[in-house]
Amino acid sequence: MNKRGFSAIELLTVIVIVGIITAFGIPRIRSAVLRSNVRSAKAAMGTLVAKARAVAVARGCNATMTLSSTDQTVSISVCNVNGTGTEILGGVDSLAARFNVAMRPSTSTLTFDPRGLSTNYATLVVGFSSISSSSVSDSVIVNPLGQVVRQ
Description:
alpha+beta; minor pseudopilin epsh fold; four-stranded antiparallel β-sheet; 2 helices; elongated
């Protein structure tokens, strides 16, 4: 007898096996995405700190990085190129919205002088945690000299 195709039992077996594999895979993928979001927010914060430090040196004036824990935003204000007034460099960046994380800065401002050094000589710690899962968290540390140290 010549049979073509698959029986219902064979199809059902394959569907059950695929379902079991998927059930184990989806939580791992979700966890990897959450860890990736926190790492990306951490890298973006490091880039913003380096940008603020570099613009302070390049323009020869203080650059202030404002970290808002209520709005979950970061902005860099610096003197205008012509020397009068200040401007927000690159707009206000919402790391929380972009990476779906919560940001907890230890202080609300970080100011760099024209030499690229932090003016308050205090360590800034910015903690990041995933909004979806509190178990995924990390932080960025800016030392008193203004250098980014990742933890």
